[in-house]
């Protein structure tokens, strides 16, 4: 698009009104889910305004069109903190978001002055608003009321009140209010009503009953007839009887949906979950046949990896989280609908796992590569250098993602066996068994009593002392962790006063989002793991977290700051550390988490393939606090496979002791029954009585930590990662220089070879001829940093594209100020070819073969246009000695002299001789039909698997 012409068109077309079409602009930010709720309205003379009511916070925003085809920021190279009343010259290129700090809820006017189309300006001013009048008591006239009080991190108290007009009504209406300042603007209370087609609770505790009804009400709010996202379908609605992701997220995202369904939604609306799962499947887009070397059926039906880091799959491979939800849907759909979905699920899972095996499986470790599941904001949970070098993230291995691959393989094997395909079932069962062994061998850290959440990337590969609650919990939930390891994990993972953070330790210099945060859905997986392992203390902490979060926030929020439990921790002294950066009400997986907590963990109802299992986990603390007013708790109107089920929990007398209550007996419709009830045993209407009896002590171990939420204390933070500054040979020795600071651990070729090194230098007397090194910093309490970028002794063999041995159908591009080095511009169409002849190797050994490139198709955190190609190494006789997928993720673009990047490596064991390298096509997510309406590269204009090639490198490794 000609930007100057676009600007002139905007000024001319929109001089009197903001007309529909390419000239529409919106203020899009965290406060509106990056949506289009706040259009810039023409005021005349090229001036446009949007008045937006903002709550306190540090708000990221951009000015963009409906489909993001136009994007305006102040500086495309860096974020700008906007000062009120200051006019900023805008750049019409994509770039990082700008920020506005707001102390108190107020209306802010965003003004874009495009009277000079070549130099638009942005200014933001606070509008004076009249003082709010005193509001009436929302509970006035209520028949029954209840209150929950919670201590705050700074020694104060907050309260949530609940009331109903008719406590005896079959379907109650509730009013809920809070004393806590809400994150988003609006009243300090909410009203909702129980639904006739959803379960309800009668526990003798109005607050407990109400919070379950709140989750059900929010589930209904997330149940939509159409979905939308500004990056798809031109921002227009897409018909879908689906679950949207939350108040600020109106699309279906694979991982959000899948975890939400697994935690609770698949029990309550399996058809809508199925519809949503089907929406996240796609075959090859129109006009594209099955790419060479891709696996699976010709139509290519597979799970969609959503937009994200480096251009999506296979930098990220957690699309396989889809399997968690699919398994639950297969358990809860009526049998008549189950077979059809099972056939589709098998096909999609098979195509997905086969292609992931090609593109993302590392045979040397037995693990799959790819970003941590759900932790998809790489700055928050990876080393600070990683966002500029995403090939290292792409080659790392993550616990949560590998557990997801295990789930996908086991489900695919089950479906294949049920379909009569014994050979395919055996294949996937073998892969799953080997993967389970590899996770336990490669990622278990005996000294920590937990699994490492991720390994370092290539040329290092060591499991790092970094931990995440989702990965640990999923390892327990899937049975990858045996009983001893499950007990150890629950005893060792840290809990703050408000609950467990999603990562440990926290990262310095990062705002609250994944870092320094509680996410309710992750807490719910921790609760599930605790209940199944019998850890009372961890379960009680999780119950507290989920109840407190929903009660004080009037909604099941996306996330909360972990040490204070606040929906927004303001820090005017450090505005860049404020957060959570964004948090949506009625976030789908938080809603699923709360519903599942009550149905599955408290009342113990878990659907299985053959029936329902009854495993309530009522702790003594839950009994004496949540159910103090009654000896019975009832779950009414639960509908599973068309059967109506009412569960009566009969509670023993409360006690001050700690533990959980064993099941003393079960009755189904008045007759004695087992804790596993087969589907055929259920009538149309059923009553299940569960008698809880003696108190079992269970496990009481829990690790407690605490710190001031405004301080980056070593008690809860890890050090910043150091860097290797020098690497030099000194005779037979190698001398490493590195940043000073905390004690340093040194890794050689992925193994720790020195610990607690002080100073800024270390000498290796046992270096190999091609060793690679990395370092990490460590605090005295054991909290460690990420690893540094590796440095290797071998300098490598470099071949630039100007070398006469290079063969390509793409001509050299013209150099420019931004791209001064010679390169093949925009290489990567399906028929493009690139090869290098006569690459001479003098020393035998293991080599890493990489492509030197730059991929500027999209920003590093967005898109579907990561480069994914097939690289082959052939010897003098033309025999292939190594081949496989290499990844060329999005890379940063500088204003001048954009740096090159190196692809993920292809490993080859080479003898002395001459070799030929050949690069050809594979596929990325842009090849799928579901992305044909995507607004950026790889979407509406066709797949983008293109980048600039600068050369190749062969580096000798140990």
Strand order of the largest sheet: 14-30-31-35-32-33
Question: What is the CATH top level name of the domain at 797-957?
Answer: Mainly Beta
Output mean pLDDT: 95
The percent range for strand residues is 25-35%
Total helical elements: 16
CATH architecture of the domain at 797-957: Sandwich
Structural class, by secondary structure, is alpha+beta
User: Which regions have little confidence, pLDDT < 50, spanning 5+ residues?
Assistant: 1-22
Tell me about the largest β-sheet.
6 strands, mixed
**Cα-based radius of gyration, to the nearest Å:** 29 Å
Helix percentage range: 10-25%
Shape: globular
CATH superfamily heading of the domain at 797-957: Galactose-binding domain-like
CATH topology of the domain at 797-957: Jelly Rolls
Report, as a whole number of angstroms, the end-to-end distance. Answer: 49 Å
InterPro entries: 6-hairpin_glycosidase_sf, 6hp_glycosidase-like_sf, Ig-like_fold, Ig_E-set
Keywords: Signal
Protein name: Esterase
Signal peptide: 1-19
